[in-house]
Design brief:
The protein has seven helices and no strands. The chain is mainly α.
Length: 192
């Protein structure tokens, strides 16, 4: 019996190839770019929101008349919630459907964003950022999984790379957008 090297090993019997999975011949990949656009917007918003706040922290401390260490929790609460819930949200997507949890995440994120915008106190803002991050965890955990399912196996690397481009652009654009908003839009939280 010939010994197989790493490159010659065929693992499809262990994990199943796309062709051997039930219903594999019926998969319609015609809407893959629409899926990419929809998921990309969610990914973009989540990553912009994660990085947009850092440039606004001194302004928030001044507007809410609080210490900088308290205002830092606006950013910390978001990142802690996002990193804590991502794995759980991925599992919920496996259990109840990726699309349903993803859409719920976008809705929760949008509601959280609106509530952040009308926050009357720093503590309300921190709480709303936790809500917002809960929605972002749902969408970020499932975005890549949805993209992978939308593309045929030979295009998945390109699709994951495009998803990564949305992440990179969001992280880069967040501070710039935050700076524009702080400089050109008059935000009076205490007078709302």
């Amino acid at each position: 019996m010939k010994e197989l090297t790493y490159k010659e090993t065929d693992y499809t019997d262990m994990i199943g190839s796309e062709e051997t999975k039930p219903g594999a011949g019926n998969i319609d990949y015609s809407r893959k770019w629409f899926v990419m656009a929809a998921v990309g917007v969610g990914i973009l918003l989540g990553t912009i929101d994660a990085s947009i706040i850092y440039i606004a922290l001194p302004t928030l401390a001044r507007e809410f008349n609080t210490s900088f260490s308290t205002v830092q929790w606006v950013a910390h609460a978001y990142m802690l919630t996002l990193s804590t819930l991502t794995l759980t949200m991925g599992r919920l997507g496996d259990m109840f459907g990726k699309k349903q949890i993803y859409i719920t995440g976008v809705v929760v994120f949008s509601i959280g964003s609106f509530l952040c915008g009308i926050s009357q106190s720093i503590y309300w803002l921190i709480g709303c950022r936790v809500l917002e991050a809960s929605g972002a965890a749902m969408s970020s955990a499932l975005g890549t999984a949805i993209i992978i399912e939308a593309f045929p196996p030979h295009e998945r690397g390109k699709a994951i790379g495009a998803g990564g481009a949305f992440v990179s652009f969001g992280i880069i654009a967040g501070p710039a957008i935050g700076g524009i908003l702080i400089n050109y839009i008059n935000l009076h939280y205490n007078n709302c």
